[in-house]
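Renewal narrative, Specific Aim 1. Our central claim is that a sequence can be written position by position from structural information alone. The example that follows is taken directly from our test logs and has not been curated for this report. It begins with the structure tokens describing the chain, in the order in which they were read.
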């Protein structure tokens, strides 16, 4: 599991230059993750973004990284879902 998540993360980092990292709430995302994915597909296109686990404290599932081709999409995502953010390129 850890190796697969690391491969997914490295692959996304190579392909997409912009990353937004989200801390997973203690209760999980629930239906919100499905809503975010639908918005991302509609806004960025199915190939315009990627996601991968982004554990912040060595725990694979405590954070999620979303990767974008363009910083404008990252800003639009943050604005839509009211996240505090720092875009990393």
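The sequence written for that structure reads:
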């Amino acid at each position: 599991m850890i190796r697969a998540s690391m491969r997914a993360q490295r692959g996304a980092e190579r392909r997409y230059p912009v990353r937004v990292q989200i801390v997973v709430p203690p209760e999980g995302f629930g239906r919100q993750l499905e809503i975010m994915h639908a918005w991302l597909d509609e806004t960025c296109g199915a190939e315009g973004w990627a996601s991968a686990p982004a554990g912040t404290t060595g725990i694979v599932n405590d954070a999620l990284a979303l990767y974008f081709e363009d910083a404008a999409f990252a800003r639009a995502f943050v604005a839509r879902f009211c996240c505090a953010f720092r875009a990393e390129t």
